Amino acid sequence: MDEFMQAAYEEAVKGYQEGGIPIGSVLVHNGKIIGRGHNRRVQRGSVVLHGEMDALENAGRQSAAVYRECTIYTTLSPCPMCSGTILLYGIPRVVIGENSTFMGEEELLRSRGVSLEVVDHPDCKALMQQFINEQPSLWNEDIGETDE
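Given the sequence above, the corresponding C-alpha cells read:
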C-alpha cells in the first residue's frame, strides 16, 4: 500500500475505532498531504461528513489552482455527493482503495475526465466488510438505503 493510501486507511481505522463508518481519505498536493479525514457522520451527527468531505474540510480553503493539481485518495469508491464535490473543485485524480463493497459514481467521474485508479486493496475491503457485517443498518443509512 503506498504512503497516501496507507494514510487514508489509517483514517478509516480511526473512524471505525470511534464507532463510525470506516472510510478514510487524504487530499494530496505536490506530494504532501494537505488534508486528511474520515467519515464522521455518526461522531458529529453530520449529514455530509463522508471521508472525502472531511479531508477537504480539513484541508481548509484552497485556490482553484491547488485543487486542479491534487489527488484525492479514498478507501472506498466515492458516493454521488463526494463525486460531485470532486467535480466541483476540479480534482483531476482519484485513487480508490476498493470498489467491491460499494460502487460509487466512477463512471460519472471518468466521463468528466477524472483519472481513476482502483488499487483493490485487501485491507480496505476487509475493514469495510467487517463493518457492514457488524452494522448493516448504519451502513445502509450512510449510503441512503432504507431498512424496509
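The longest helix spans residues 3-17. Try to locate this feature in the C-alpha cell string yourself.
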